Amino acid sequence: SKYPITNAQFGEFIKSGGYANRRWWTDVGWENRQKETLIEPRFWRDSRWNSSEQPVVGVSWYEAIAFCSWLSNVTGENIMLPTEQQWQRAAQGNDGRIYPWGNDWNENRCHNAVDGYYSNCSTRVTEYEEEGNSPFGVVDMVGNVWEWCLTAYQTGLNDLDTINDRVLRGCSWNHKNINNFRCDSRNFRHPFTRDNNRGFRISRS
Fold first, then answer.
1. Model's pTM, two decimal places?
2. HSE, side-chain direction, 13 A CA sphere, residue 90
3. Concatenated DSSP letters for 124-189?
4. Measured distance CA(67)–CA(202) in Å, rounded
5. Which of 122, 144, 170, 194 is least enclosed by beta carbons within 10 angstroms?
6. For residues 62 and 157, what is the distance between their CA atoms, to the nearest angstrom?
7. How far apart are CA 158 and CA 133, in angstroms?
8. With a cut of 70, which residues of the chain have pLDDT below it?
């Protein structure tokens, strides 16, 4: 997708009963949803994070997978989280550049906290359109929120139901180290994690 999934987009999943419909969830994801009585993202009612054009945050990897399953059904398309390899190519293009916009760091091209560049929450997904676009015109690939990938960090597998740490790419609004914003920078978290600096985008195949 051109942008990370926004609150407005994720809201359609909620309104459709996505948290109550077992159909969209993996076995492990549904078990966790029931155990934690999840009915919406963690920060869904927090005004710092819930404007319509901000990326949805506070979603686990399993919530992101459920959204993809639901959207696949709605659209008739094959929708899923990008694999780690798909994510990197969308960010980096074909020339091996360091950042989506080129090889030189520029704090004005993405949402970050480098060298006192003030940031205390996410911003609209269109905030850095044009300035920070990847070679393919994909927006917000670094900064703003870490993005869940389909891929398991340790094994590299793109499975759905094992409880393995999952790859995160792109870095986020609260990071200060420019190396974390590189197109090849890798991170991971447990798939149940629901933090305010993690979101996702989708891939269609």
1. 0.97
2. 24
3. -TTTTTTTT--TT-----SSS-EEEEEEETTT----SSS---EEEES--TT---GGGGSTT--EEE
4. 9
5. 194
6. 16
7. 27
8. none
Residues contacting 33, CB < 8 A, separation 6+: 19, 25, 62, 63
* Interatomic CA distance for residues 117 and 132, integer angstroms: 16
Half-sphere exposure of 166 (CA within 13 A, CB side): 28
62 φ, ψ to 5°?
Answer: -70, -35
Distance CA 113, CA 178 (A): 9
User: Helix, strand or coil for residue 187?
Assistant: strand
Tokens of 108: 């004005």
CA 77 to chain centre: 19
Cβ distance 149 to 201 under 8 Å?
A: no
Please name the amino acid found at residue 116. G
Residue 74: how many other CB atoms lie within 10 Å: 12
Asked if residues 62 and 25 have their Cβ atoms less than 8 Å apart, the reply is yes
DSSP for residue 102: B
* C-alpha closest to that of 149 among 99, 196, 204, 86: 86
